[in-house]
Specification:
By secondary structure, the chain is of the alpha+beta class. It contains five helices and five strands. It folds into two domains: 5-86, Nucleic acid-binding proteins (OB fold (Dihydrolipoamide Acetyltransferase, E2P), Beta Barrel); 90-194, no CATH class. Strand 1 (5-15) and strand 2 (21-27) form a beta hairpin.
């Protein structure tokens, strides 16, 4: 297998054994990747400082062609990772953390995982610490996610969301609470129809 390298957001880290981890990530060029990280829990050099914790942006390199790969469930052996951005400001707010984990659950259900989704997720992470209306922000995130995936049933209801990147969320026109609730209801219905995720995706208040 050819070695892979690039940038990726850590989405989920799961203990595999006393020393190893399974890591799900969204990469810029390869989409969703599933890493097997041998000895990650004991490594004080390659994976120190919580580098493999969500939603960190990392630079990664997998094992080169010819080296043994971990073949359970299509996992790719992660050779090295270094931190690019830890999004520390998100961790200063419990509400921001909740929204972040809900965003991750949405992304994990992607069937495309291309560069546009990578940019969408990254833009949302950068904007999240400045957000005051989490409900509408997350609705915006879900709508643009469905649009990127090519499965948004009706764009007429969400033209502003579709054309506005997450980093420009604050520039959206202000609407009344009744409209925010209606937007949420439609987006939640569309997401449930499309997503095959078994995770319960929590909508922020």
């Amino acid at each position: 297998m050819q070695n892979l390298q690039g940038e990726a957001f850590i989405l989920r880290t799961i203990s595999y054994s006393e020393a190893d981890l399974i890591v799900h990530a969204l990469s810029k060029e390869q989409g969703l990747l599933h890493f097997f990280v041998r000895g990650a829990k004991k490594s004080k050099k390659r994976f120190s400082g919580g580098v493999l914790q969500p939603p960190h942006l990392i630079k990664f390199e997998t094992s080169r062609s010819g080296e043994k790969q971990h073949d359970d469930g299509g996992l790719i052996t992660l050779k090295d990772a270094s931190l690019v951005n830890d999004f520390i400001d998100i961790r200063n707010s419990y509400s921001s953390m909740e929204v972040m984990f809900s965003m991750i659950k949405v992304v994990l259900s992607s069937e495309t995982g291309h560069e546009e989704l990578f940019n969408h997720f990254g833009g949302a992470l950068k904007a999240l610490p400045t957000i005051k209306t989490y409900k509408r922000f997350f609705t915006h995130f879900v709508v643009r996610y469905l649009y990127i995936e090519g499965v948004l049933p009706s764009q007429d209801e969400f033209l502003d969301f579709v054309k506005t990147p997450m980093g420009s969320h604050a520039k959206l026109p202000t609407v009344r609470e009744e409209m925010i609730n209606r937007e949420q209801g439609l987006a939640a219905h569309f997401l449930k129809t499309y997503s095959n995720s078994k995770d319960n995706i929590k909508w922020p208040k």
